Amino acid sequence: MDMSERIRSRHQHSRRYVGNQVADEMKGTMNTPSLVSVARAKSILLLRRQYFQVLVAILLGGGLGYVEPKFAVQLKPIGDTFISLIRMLTGPIVFCTVVCGIAGMGDVKKLGRVGAKTLLYFELVSTLSLVVGLVGGHLLRPGIGYRLTSASLDVSDIAQYASGAHKQNAVDMLKHVVPETFASAFVGGNLLQVLLVSVIAGLALVTIGERGRMVSDFIDSFASMLFGMVRIVMKGATLGAFGAIAFAVGTFGVGSVAPLLKLIGAFYITITFFVVVVLGAICRLAGFSVSSFIRYVGSELLIVLSTSSSEAALPQMLEKLARLGCSRSIVGLVVPAGYSFNLDGTNIYMTMAVLFISQIFNVDLSWEQQLTLIGVAMLTSKGASGVAGAAFVMLTSTLTAFPVIPVSGMVLLLGIHRFMGTGLAIVNTVGNGVAAIVISAWEDELDWSMLKRTLQKSNDH
Residues 6 or more apart from 315 whose CB is under 8 A from it? Predict the structure, then answer.
């Protein structure tokens, strides 16, 4: 082969090599999705996620309430219907989860141990929340700048709450817990009554042993059907959130809360501190991150945000905590009980509101009186679950039992209670979820690998 042929051969080989490289690159390009298609797929996935849909509904509902308040007020039945559908299922779900939880333990001693740990945790964290609210009220001083007298306020609007508060003595509270009949516990929607019936039924199944297994299996299957109903009802969460927030903004408006924005701001700063620092420290000690948990239950918190009701997310929270790796028996006992005994957000609201009222009336409270306030609030915060305007009734009960501060100051909170109620409901929901994980870990009944895997998957999305 002469020189010219060798050059021609090398040239042809070079062309074939370059052509093959280009073909491989084109093939790779065809097999690899473009950035545009990936972005489009992520956008479609985001649009299908319920938390995004609920968030958009909240923004649209708030905008409608601001622009067309008269029309927005008429949308109240939409939000009320959604909440009613959830509450319709809450009582039976609590009954099934508590009964199956106790029966699943199969040991009265274990039940007593878990119950004791749960109550100990509740009382410690509840005390911390009351103290945090008290310290927040002192540091942020939301009532400074107002100077009022009792005679300058119209107290007619708080008469119904004051009446409810006077009924919250020890005897009436006990009667309030015990239902007149088995069915009335579910008809009235009182979670404390449902909880009492559930605990007695669960204990009965434990004591009769194998004879109760068939009943326990039936209740467990019935609970699966109820959770299926919840998933169907949750399809309407977006519409329910839209109607609820539109009504809230249309009714109260921005102008009605402007003079009291200092209290609202101080309250949200305080509950944020409680979640990040107090609950965050508890979560770190337990071995997980509170921020990861909040992202995991983001859809449920948005529903609470739009409805101002922690009960609206109760069925979904029970299911999500079980999927997170918590013991179903412990979740079924801790979370429903927490809705009556572990109301961290409500506790912060009560102590801050009492301090706010004392500041606007220029009433100086001694440290002894403030410690007494914590003790009184610890008692009055129990047993109001299921009562209409529960947080307001609790606050009125505290002021009634603590006569140093005028109860008439409650009228100032009527216009902003809805906005503060949203925050306290979110904190109550997060606090009870954290409690279920901690108690499960405490009892060594938490699947850590499932917990980390599920939280990581939630964070990735």
Answer: 86, 89, 90, 93, 226, 227, 230
